[in-house]
Amino acid sequence: MLALRNSLIRNVSARVLRPTLPITVTKKPLSYSKPLNQEVGEEYTATGTITRRPLKIRRVKRIDDSVAKVSRPAPFWEAKAVFEDEISPLSLNHFEKKFLVMIFYPLDFTFVCPTELTAFSDRIKEFKEINTEVVGISCDSEHTHYNWNKIPRNQGGLGNLKYPLVSDFSKRISEDYGVLCEDKSFPFRGTIIIDDKGIVRVININDTQIGRSVDEVLRLVQAIQFANQYGEVCPANWKKGDSTIIPDQEKARSYFSKLK
């Protein structure tokens, strides 16, 4: 009995103390068979349930990519425009070595828009006298521009503007110049002034209900030109012929000493 008991104890101890060897699991890769006539990028199915699809690459536009900024070069644009009963291509390059006022407005056949566009047209001579051109821009098609421009003013039309009306049908120009109202897909009343070196000098944006002042836009162009020519700065409410300030701590005193 004693011998049998000792034998049983040895057998149990051997099983408990025996080291456990690690179990190795080998993963067998899935295999698939590609048809002989399979083109690159086409969808095909491996043996099993795995489906391979073409890789989709999305272009993410940088926030500062092609966006107009004051004191930076103006983003290039090119589009069709209506001028003098014709529809023809127009681009920023057509205004090289000239000042350019870009008047963005919401829509043709509306209410405030014709009053602004015709007001600038009536005073186009004053802009040309100071080496400045004007263009109107909206997201309407060139054909809509053409028809609206032919309608007399007393019927809500433009009566043949004296400057080009640009069609930004793709909305690219409005987007690049930061004036697009994305919720409604048309521009705010944006006023952009570009100098004769192609640099953006002014960006003003009004909400759609607020019309602009031609006098103020003329004043801004004149102020930029004066500052460029003489290196002096224009104070608040400055108009052509008014005193300016020499941007120097000592020399500026001659201006401020005259104030009451």
Automatic annotation (TrEMBL):
Disulfide bond found in the keyword field: yes
Substrates-to-products reaction catalysed: a hydroperoxide + [thioredoxin]-dithiol = an alcohol + [thioredoxin]-disulfide + H2O
Gene Ontology, cellular component aspect: cytosol
InterPro entries from the UniProt entry: AhpC/TSA (IPR000866), Peroxiredoxin (IPR050217), Peroxiredoxin_C (IPR019479), Thioredoxin-like_sf (IPR036249), Thioredoxin_domain (IPR013766)
Thioredoxin domain span: 68-226
Record has Methyltransferase as a keyword: no
MF (Gene Ontology): thioredoxin peroxidase activity
Keywords carried by this UniProt record: Antioxidant, Disulfide bond, Oxidoreductase, Peroxidase, Redox-active center
SUPFAM superfamilies reported in the protein's UniProt record: Thioredoxin-like (SSF52833)
Family classification: Belongs to the peroxiredoxin family. AhpC/Prx1 subfamily.
Name this polypeptide is given: thioredoxin-dependent peroxiredoxin
Organism: Diversispora eburnea
